[in-house]
Write a structure and sequence with these properties.
The structure holds two protein chains of two kinds. Chain A is an all-alpha fold. Chain A contains seven helices and no strands. Chain A has one domain. The relative contact order of chain A is 0.14. The longest helix of chain B is centred in the first third of the chain and has 21 residues. The chains are: A mainly alpha, B alpha/beta.
């Protein structure tokens, strides 16, 4: 069982807005993590693995905001962006996936 | 009958504050000068009320309930959120709301088919507090925030945002007692936050759009810059949808001032001003 991209984003959104809870997480207290996490989700959060959270489908804004609290400002650009270059994310890639394909080349009957 | 007395659309780039120490004197002078010009224009217009159009960065609204457009109806407007203030060192804003104007906006936008959501309890994040703290440093004019979804797909289309602005224009025209109303909005050119394109600038896109802005080319700005195309230049580039709304308010008129500064430490910082913009009493076609 896992939360999945939508519930995990929502759960982290709630944690981010709770100052005391978020500062506890920053200081190493994993007891404040959301309930219902799957093993991969828990591992990413326990490891402060932001690229992992992005790959799990958390909205990029929420991942970046977590980074703002957990790490120095330059961390995301230096340590996360290089690791998500080929990563899929349902929020980031929404329009790329929905962009209509180019017309197929070839004859009328394919 | 109300009057639109000025409109300002400007950056809310948090790095101006979060990375303030890394900027050059040239950066500070350029952006500070543009901010001062926007502030002077708004103060000269002496508005009685301000409508602020900006996006929420997944703070007030979450994935459980995220409207395309939301109207803040509370008596107070305050922000930003705790870590924006404590960690990012972003400016705060605390001032009066205006429930009566907010109700008129809700009604007018609903009658126009825009379908906004009522937002009776809220804080505003830096997309509001940065521009408001610049142009209303004393927070002495009531503000009604209008939230635009620019981050959680599907986004409202550029034409719909433009139409929302036209509906706001009509709401201003229909206000009683000769009220003077200004619009303050925030927007970006190409920028990505949190995605793989972060740190990558699309200068060709920025230059082309700045030309359309200076020309007041509504056809291209609204017709070409659809959400699908905007996010192709960065996920936060979709914050340009706020600018589409301002275009709907000011109508067919080029801005009086366009400033843009690209700082290595900050990224792009646009500021656009319309002084004594199109009178809302003119018919809306």
């Amino acid at each position: 069982m896992t939360l999945g991209p939508y519930q995990l984003t929502q759960a982290l959104h709630a944690m981010l807005l709770d100052r005391d809870r978020m500062l506890a997480y920053r200081d190493g207290d994993d007891s404040v993590l959301p309930g219902g996490l799957g093993p991969g989700e828990r591992a990413a959060l326990s490891g402060r693995d932001l690229a992992g959270l992005y790959r799990l489908g958390v909205h990029p804004l929420v991942v970046f905001h977590l980074s703002a609290v957990l790490f120095p400002r330059s961390h995301y650009l230096r340590a996360v962006v290089p690791r998500i270059q080929d990563a899929a994310n349902p929020f980031h890639d929404y329009y790329a996936r929905r962009r209509p394909p180019m017309p197929a080349a070839g004859g009328r009957d394919g | 009958m109300g009057t639109l007395v000025a409109a300002v659309a400007m950056t809310h780039n948090p790095r101006i504050f979060w990375n303030a120490d890394a900027a050059t004197e040239e950066d500070r002078a350029a952006v500070g000068g543009a901010f001062a010009a926007a502030r002077a224009a708004l103060q000269a217009a002496a508005p009685d009320l301000v409508i602020a159009v900006a996006n929420d960065h997944l703070h007030r609204f979450g994935l459980d309930n995220l409207p395309a457009f939301g109207v803040g109806t509370a008596a107070e407007v305050a922000g930003p959120y705790w870590y924006e203030r404590e960690v990012m060192r972003l400016p705060g804003y605390q001032g009066a709301g205006h429930p009566d104007l907010a109700e008129d906006i809700l009604w007018g936008l609903s009658e126009s088919g825009i379908g906004p959501s009522r937002c009776g309890a809220f804080r505003v994040d830096h997309a509001f507090t940065v521009p408001l703290s610049v142009v209303l440093p004393d927070a002495d004019v009531p503000v009604v925030p209008v939230f635009v979804n620019t981050f959680v797909p599907p986004l409202p289309g550029s034409a719909r945002c433009f139409d929302m602005g036209r509906a706001l224009r009509q709401v201003i025209a229909d206000r009683p007692g000769g009220e003077r109303v200004a619009v303050v909005a925030s927007f970006n050119l190409s920028v990505e936050v949190g995605g793989p394109g972060m740190g990558r600038r699309h200068a060709d896109f920025d230059d082309r759009v700045l030309g359309w802005i200076a020309d007041g080319d509504i056809g291209r700005l609204v017709g070409e810059l659809t959400p699908e195309r905007l996010v192709g230049y960065g996920n936060s580039t979709a914050e340009f949808l706020n600018y589409h709304a301002v275009l709907g308010v000011v109508g067919e008129r080029a801005p009086d001032l366009v400033r843009y500064h690209q700082a290595d430490a900050w990224g792009g910082c646009p500021v656009v001003v319309w002084r004594a913009a199109t009178k809302p009493s003119q018919p809306v076609n």
